[in-house]
Amino acid sequence: MKVAIIGSGIIGSAIAFHLASLGMRVEVWETQTQPGLGSTGAALGFLLGVASAKTSGRIVRLRLDSLKLYDTWLPELEKLTGRRVLLHQGIVCLPRDGHLWRELAQVRAKQGYSLEPVVIGQYQGFYSPTDRVVHPLELVSALVEAATQRGAKFHWGCAWEQGREADSDRVVVCGGLGSQALVELPLQAVGGQAIEVAVAADPHLPALHIVDELGDVNLVPLGGGRYWIGATVEFDPTVLPRAENVTYLLGRVGQYFPQFQESTVLNTWANYRPRPIGRGAPVIEWCRPGWLVASGHYRNGLLLAPITAQIVGEMLINSTTATSINKS
Ligand SMILES: Cc1cc2nc3c(=O)[nH]c(=O)nc-3n(C[C@H](O)[C@H](O)[C@H](O)COP(=O)(O)OP(=O)(O)OC[C@H]3O[C@@H](n4cnc5c(N)ncnc54)[C@H](O)[C@@H]3O)c2cc1C
Q1: pTM
Q2: CA–CA gap between residue 36 and residue 176 (Å, rounded)
């Protein structure tokens, strides 16, 4: 089967890798000249399935199944490409409401996952050995390299124009926010900003997911006192990045670890998450004969990339008896 993929963010690249591994003939069209310059490049790389407050439902199943797929994806990708994709195995969650999290730990134990009580500084936290942090750009680059090794062809700097006909058997639309210009999928752009800082008095923190009444803050140690901190969730974003967001993020972490109030800001960046309007994330479905859409992954595109690729693979295989778009 010949498959055209539109978009080489984390979703399109993961699908390209998986379909090429299944022996399909894959071609990817990407507007940008390199992978991961959309939402993916702005992400902090948290793969949070276990240390996440929701306990049941479709999204929880997708998260936990995708985390499991990473058990094989990460070593395979690192071996195939020599890239160091995994930044941290295991993360610590610092919740304001410890009682709620003790209950969550019991639910997760029944589901086969562990959340162990741990103390970080003066705070009670929960260690999740299963959750991880990856380097988003290394991950997407590794997927592109590995897909290429398995025969996928990437067309960089080539936008798929609206109304263009496909010369493949199937098309998978993975344009992130750009998907709505190609197929009927209303999406909202939800802004997010992150920073990289250097802390002189390094408190040597683990990868941290802080959850309190002001929302979530994620912190990724990079070594040598450097950290990524993010991300804001802006439903009504104006122009990003904004100077006040830098102050906000430093203040949020500084509340817990005062060393961050004295840190040097090395970089700040921002982008927009694709959030489906009026329905849950993500959207993986047939949208017209021979065309699948896999978009709208909102805040969890990195986490959900392997399970999305697996679902798309199954949908394509099960559709082999359906009419080819070339004939429809
Ligand atoms: C600040 C921030 C922090 C985040 N942190 C995390 C995190 O820690 N963990 C997590 O799991 N998720 C995180 N996310 C969310 C995650 O980044 C997104 O869910 C994910 O990147 C969406 O991936 P995508 O491939 O669908 O979209 P994108 O990465 O935007 O990729 C879509 C690609 O399609 C291309 N494209 C669009 N239209 C066309 C066209 N017509 N022709 C050709 N190419 C086209 C675009 O150029 C782009 O490269 C974060 C997001 C932000 C903004």
Answers
A1: 0.97
A2: 11
